[in-house]
Amino acid sequence: MKTAQRILITALDIFNQQGENNVSSVEIAMELDISPGNLYYHFKGKEVIVAALFDLYQEQLRAILDAPSKQSDTSLNIEDFFYYLYLIIEKNHLFRFLYRNPTDLTDKYPSVAKGFIKLMAAQERCVTELLAKFVTQSTITASAAQCNQMVEIIGLVFSQAGNYYALKGNDINDDEYLYKSLSAILFALLPYINIEPGELHHLQEAIVNRGFSHDE
């Protein structure tokens, strides 16, 4: 693995554990057992590392967001929709330091702030379009205002669920966090979902039994 890749992987891990604001580029170099000069050769300071990690996050998340529009099959399945949400939550959690204190982060890094606004808008747009398709299929019965409220609730789970559990002092693992987040979204959408009882039960079982994990 190239040194630049090692720096990004290590920085991401430390930022996620301690918060970007509490970590210096020297500490990243020490964790890698390389000199600060070697790190500086690849990344001219922590700001460049943060920007590179955000670019990586943005690239990976956009690939997920773009996936539904590339499918030839226009019909939607509610369980597929929740798997799609799972992938977004999983990606956000992988880069969770970005959401740890987002206002401070975006104040410090203006380039990240601009990208964040566009990325959140893209997330909302994708979820809005998928919900609209469900309404057309009668899989969901809701007004436009109710759909907008669902989009906001899902967005809050995407961005703030991790902080909520951290503030509560809940010691939960990554997998538990992902499925607690999915459960919260299902609870919010449940009154509007119109599917067969067996299909709903299967979705609930998939969430309870963590059936969306990649190794399942």
From TrEMBL:
PROSITE patterns: HTH_TETR_2. The keyword Chloroplast does not apply. The keyword DNA-binding applies. Residues 1-61 form the HTH tetR-type domain. Keywords: DNA-binding. Residues 24-43 bind DNA. GO terms for molecular function: DNA binding. This is HTH tetR-type domain-containing protein.
